[in-house]
Specification:
Blueprint: E1 2-3, E2 6-7, E3 18-23, H1 33-44, E4 50-56, H2 63-66, E5 71-77, E6 87-90, H3 110-119, E7 125-131, H4 145-148, H5 151-164
Parallel strand pairs: 3-4, 3-5, 5-7
Antiparallel strand pairs: 1-2, 6-7
Length: 168
């Protein structure tokens, strides 16, 4: 069957829209890991359909933004009880948290925001790549050596995710 001069089924698929979100506080040593990874990605370059966004600490304002994307890759630090610099890849469904009482919208977690985005019809496929920090309490713009050493492997993991998603 012909539609607009082309055979049906011959249309090009539009590329998946990807958001890579760097999460964390750049001022608190290893908590700024996600932001440092975004800086490294900017230097390396990404395809046009990949958006890099520094989120700082996640807020409810991200809910509508998530709906614009097919794939969300979150880069963050996570206290997992492992050695500093250890990397983890997981989905939001694999995260286990004790429910807690929220007092304001400033206390929302990534999972809270993703759940709200889903209620609004805009929850993208989500992958979280996280590092075990060494220090998240000291004031410094610099990462610890262990966490800094994890950046190249993190970039490789992101590249692998983009290839698996058909973006690269």
């Amino acid at each position: 069957m012909v539609s607009n001069g082309r055979l049906r089924g011959d249309e090009k698929k539009s590329p998946r829209k990807v958001l890579i979100l760097g999460v964390g506080n750049l001022l608190l040593t290893d908590d700024g890991f996600g932001v440092h990874v975004l800086t490294a990605l900017q230097k390396r370059g990404v395809p046009a359909n990949v958006t890099l966004l520094e989120a700082g600490t996640i807020s409810h304002q991200m809910i509508l933004t998530f709906g614009e994307f097919d794939l969300l890759i979150v880069i963050d630090a996570v206290l997992a009880g492992d050695v500093p610099g250890a990397l983890f890849r997981f989905s939001p469904n694999e995260m286990r948290f004790m429910p807690e009482r929220k007092m304001s919208l400033h206390e929302l977690s990534l999972i809270d925001v993703l759940n709200m985005a889903e209620l609004c019809g805009g929850k993208p496929e989500t992958i979280i790549i996280a590092v075990q920090p060494k220090d998240v309490t000291s004031w410094s713009l610099e990462l610890s050596e262990e966490v800094k050493a994890a950046i190249p492997k993190t970039l490789d993991l992101i590249t692998e995710e983009l290839k698996n998603a058909g973006v690269l």
